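Key result, reporting period 2: structure in, sequence out.
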């Protein structure tokens, strides 16, 4: 038993009976081929033009509806997967930036500690030099006083 053929208008290029047909061309196809074309998105639902008294079976209507539902579900799944992958990549990039900033913060803290330790060391060293200079000044004052006393004693003896 041969399937009855009915006309459809292609919305995209398709191969019909081994021949490449361009979008916009009106071709006659079987129910099975119409289902394939609908699933491929090269004909618009309903996947045929109503002409004359072309009978439509509920099985065909159900098959077309199922194909359209599957196509819609697949499109939604692909869109969700694409958006999810994009957002995951953005999140990963943000985590990488946070990690880099945390490393920079640790480095900055280390540098600040090193600078503070160096400054503290310099202050301690300067305080030590100041104490040594003060001690030398005190010793010099004592020595100067001793020399003055000795000079005064020598002046009186003369």
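The corresponding designed sequence is given below.
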């Amino acid at each position: 038993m041969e399937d009855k053929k009915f006309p459809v208008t292609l919305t995209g290029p398709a191969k019909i009976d081994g021949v490449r047909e361009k979008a916009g061309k009106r071709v006659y196809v079987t129910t099975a081929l119409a289902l394939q074309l609908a699933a491929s998105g090269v004909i618009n639902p309903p996947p045929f033009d109503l002409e004359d008294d072309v009978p439509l079976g509920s099985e065909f209507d159900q098959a077309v509806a199922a194909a359209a539902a599957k196509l819609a579900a697949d499109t939604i799944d692909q869109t969700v997967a694409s958006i999810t992958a994009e957002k995951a990549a953005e999140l990963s990039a943000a985590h990488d930036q946070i990690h880099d900033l945390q490393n920079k913060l640790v480095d900055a803290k280390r540098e600040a500690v090193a600078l503070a330790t160096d400054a503290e060391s310099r202050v301690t060293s300067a305080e030590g030099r100041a104490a040594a200079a003060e001690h030398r000044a005190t010793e010099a004052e004592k020595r100067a006083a001793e020399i003055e006393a000795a000079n005064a004693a020598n002046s009186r003896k003369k």
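The radius of gyration is 48 Å. The first strand starts at residue 6 and ends at 9. This case is discussed further under Risks and Mitigation.
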